[in-house]
Amino acid sequence: ETGVTQTPRHLVMGMTNKKSLKCEQHLGHNAMYWYKQSAKKPLELMFVYNFKEQTENNSVPSRFSPECPNSSHLFLHLHTLQPEDSALYLCASSPSDRPSGEQYFGPGTRLTVT
Amino acid sequence: QQQVKQSPQSLIVQKGGISIINCAYENTAFDYFPWYQQFPGKGPALLIAIRPDVSEKKEGRFTISFNKSAKQFSLHIMDSQPGDSATYFCAASIDSNSGYALNFGKGTSLLVTP
Q1: Given an 8 Å threshold on Cβ–Cβ distance, is B102 in contact with A105?
Q2: A31 bridge partner residues
Q3: What pLDDT is stored for residue A56 in this prediction?
Q4: Residue A2 CB: number of other CB atoms within 10 A?
């Protein structure tokens, strides 16, 4: 596979469930990102990892827990979510964590919290 | 506080017409301004980007116009085609800040009619 892949593509979970989103990039990039995309709102940066180290946590609630075991994989662990957390969660990667490093986005995971 | 304001929210243009999307920002430290294009079911993809040392950048049918004094920049799509129908996001960032990712506008949904 090429580019940035995300699994699952769709996820429905209850507020008491625990689930994980997975992202994998095949581009040899060093930086990876999680974004939240809600209707009528700007893309919201959640986390930035550069060389597996977290360099940005944009005041995200602790019910979202990222994990970056290596430069190619990124996870977002979810627990006790709220209905307002329903959104499209996008993963992206770039050569570095400099903003001008073009970010390549995956297709996203559409999350619905019931 | 939203750092980048984008308008209009939606736009309908006839095939062959010019599509214009505008963005404004407040932070004068921003020095990198990309535009991303997103098709349904896909993640955003970089379309074109500009730095404030130039007032215009053109790539094919896509042109960014940049007005540093007004803190505004816009995307012009010449000879718009139905295949250009997508959501467009402007963004701004401080490129020298590692780990400081992109501040996105809310997006413009463009529909080009045949």
Answers
A1: no
A2: A50, A94
A3: 72
A4: 7
